[in-house]
Write a structure and sequence with these properties.
Layout lengths: L3 H29 L5 H50 L1 H21 L1
Membrane topology: Single-pass membrane protein
Protein name: DUF883 family protein
Keywords: Cell inner membrane, Cell membrane, Coiled coil, Membrane, Transmembrane, Transmembrane helix
């Protein structure tokens, strides 16, 4: 868990930077629309569209990476659980029975 903390902070920082750049470009576009200069508006609009595309691509890539990492982590945990159950079948049966008794008692109280 501690190994992921620096990666999460870095990803968060990159996301903040991307959104900051995008908002700056949009602010410039809004300010430029006050001018009558059509060339200036067109140039800023193109820059805003480009930054929006880049930000969207980065966010999609980060979302896919986060999904893959979560999927891999869950798979590893499931494999570890499976190995434990195969290595310690009687302990696993005991744990399952104990959990069943506790759940049964909780349900029976209602």
């Amino acid at each position: 868990m501690t190994d992921r903390a620096p990666h999460t902070r870095e990803t968060t920082r990159q996301l903040q930077d991307d959104l900051h750049h995008l908002s700056q470009t949009i602010e410039e576009l809004v300010n430029a629309t006050a001018d009558d200069s059509r060339h200036n508006v067109k140039e800023l609009r193109e820059r805003a569209e480009q930054r929006l595309r880049e930000t969207r691509e980065r966010l999609e890539a980060r979302g896919e990476r986060a999904y893959r990492e979560a999927r891999d982590s869950v798979t590893q945990q499931a494999d570890a659980c499976d190995r434990y159950v195969h290595d310690n079948p009687w302990t696993s049966i005991g744990i399952g029975a104990a959990v069943g008794v506790v759940v049964g008692m909780l349900i029976g109280r209602r």
